[in-house]
Structures are given as C-alpha cells and as structure tokens.
Amino acid sequence: MNFKHLLDTKGLSFWLLASGIGLNLIYQLVLLVVVNLGIVASSQASGADLLQVFVLLACLVGPFVIGWVITAMAGDGRGPTYGVYGSFGGAVPLVFAFLSTRSILILLMVVVTLAGGLNGGTFGEYLRHRKE
After folding, report:
1. Which of 42, 58, 84, 101 is the most exposed place for a label (fewest CB within 10 A)?
2. Is residue 60 a contact partner of residue 108, using CB atoms and an 8 Å limit?
3. pLDDT tens digits for 25-74?
C-alpha cells in the first residue's frame, strides 16, 4: 500500500468526503453521550468492563460501515482514502476528550476509529472489484 497515494486528495469527490467526515463526527458524538450515560448508570465493576468492550467495538464498527457506504457511493477506486479521511472526523472529538480526561481508553478509541475507516474503505473496494 502506497501511503502517499492513500493521503492524496486529488480526484476525490469532496461532497462524499465531507459526508463521511460529518457522519463519523455525528456518530462519535452520539457514542460519547451514550458512553457517558452508561458510565453514570453502571456502578458495578463488571459493567464497566463490558462498557469498555462495547465502546471499542462501536468505535470499530461505526467508521467501518460509514467508510464502506461512502466507498460504494463513490466507486472511483479511492475507497481507503475516503475511509481514512472520514474517520478523522470521528477522531477529532475523541482527541478533545483525551485532552480533558487523559484516559488510555480514549487513545485506543482513536486508533480503532482510524483502523475501522481504513478497513471499511478497503472492504468496499474489495467488494467493488469482486463484482466486476
């Protein structure tokens, strides 16, 4: 994989790119609200462990699906680029949350969010080439 080509924005549909960033931003903000409500509601230690697993899975699956859908809509062979840039929209609120709390879980959420976007874009390209 050529990382220089991965981060090149030449030839991208900026409407689809903005849609991916916006969808990931909204998704992560809603997820942070749900997590905060879950933290307030859970007083047991086992509930907190399950909440962390849920958060990491949600941070992977959401950007994966958004990257996959945006890649399918674009159909221009640049799926991983749409996935990575789209997942940056979801990573921004997490970085601000990390700066306020200094929690290692939030850093893991950032990495998993970026990986989910990249994998969603790659999977979308795989399915597009498989159909041809």
Report:
1. 101
2. no
3. 999 999 888 887 877 776 665 566 677 788 889 999 999 999 999 999 99
